[in-house]
Amino acid sequence: MAGKRRIPGGLRGRAIVAIGAIGALLFLASLSCAVALTLPPDLILSTLRPMLRNHGVDLSAQDARFTFPPGIRLSGVTLTFPGNPPVALDEIVASWEWTGLFRWAPARLRFRKGAASGDLRFSPAFWSPESGDLLLSGVSSSDLPLSVFSTSGAGFAIRKVEARWKMSRGKVMADGSGTLDFLQVPVPAPGSPIREARIEGVSLSFLIRENSFRIPKLSGTFEGSQVDGTGEITRVLSPRQSMMTFFLRIRNPFEGRVALLFDMLSKNAKNANLRIIGTLAAPVGEFQFF
Questions:
Q1: Of 1, 161, 220, 250, which one's alpha carbon is 20 to 30 angstroms from that of 13?
Q2: What whole-number distance in Å separates Cα of residue 278 and Cα of residue 284?
Q3: Cβ partners under 8 Å of residue 112, min gap 6
Q4: CA 203 to CA 217: how far, in whole Å?
């Protein structure tokens, strides 16, 4: 019989040391997770608040917990931005997911408020991300504490919107598409038979270039008639100073209620356009018949 092969003593000793080191690291990691999971909410919030305050955001929450996989869950959250009313959210979850490295977006931030939710994924440097993905569902203008929507009469309700964005030389670029339950734009022009145009079942694609929000394609229905067109909102990051331009074409207006609303038969018109320009707070809209 062949003799048993012996492991050299030096190699055996190094293997034991390596196994011991791995075991110690796993123990320390488990201990760190256990300690983190039992940290009191006040301690977690006292760590987060100064970090957010440096970016001009004040945070309060009813509860804060560490989660596993690594992350933080905040409940009953209120965020306050300078010059704007506070934003209330049911929950915010910030986490790090290793599987996200396959698409170079391991950092993840989710929020929820009633039926509204958002899911943002960032490149690894989450404190200064270079790219990411965005998914919004159920978010409406009523969820945003911006007086521009309550004073102008403009509004929207998102069914689902997806976008991919990136930073280049300090400028944001994004491409996306989505569907909206409705898009409402005011029509305060003198003599207009309606004060606002509500477009239902909206599908759109959009681009963000620097501080401009462009809509190269938009379709939906208005009073039963098919609508398509384009739009742009400049200085979109400053709602009170934003300028909007929308050109919407109403196809086959006699199929819906548009003909009744505008008495198009007496105008001898076959088509109608809706043109809206001005600021978000004070837009000016008019219908054109031809």
A1: 1
A2: 6
A3: 89, 90, 91, 118
A4: 8
Share above pLDDT 90 across residues of the chain, in percent, rounded to a whole number: 19
Whether residue 209 has pLDDT greater than 60: yes
Contact status, residue 109 vs residue 132, Cβ threshold 8 Å = no
In which band, very low, low, confident or very high, does the pLDDT at 218 lie, cut at 50, 70 and 90? very high
Distance CA 122, CA 64 (A): 22
Length of the chain: 290
pLDDT of 91 higher than 90: yes
pTM, two decimals, is 0.76
Which of 183, 253, 192, 188 is closest to 220 using CA atoms? 183
CB-neighbour burial class of residue 74 (10 A; exposed 0-12, middle 13-18, buried 19+)? buried
Residue 199, classified by CB atoms within 10 Å of its CB into exposed (0-12), middle (13-18) or buried (19+), is: buried
**Parallel, antiparallel or unpaired: strands 283-289 and 58-67:** unpaired
Sign (positive or negative) of CA dihedral 275, 204, 175, 144: positive
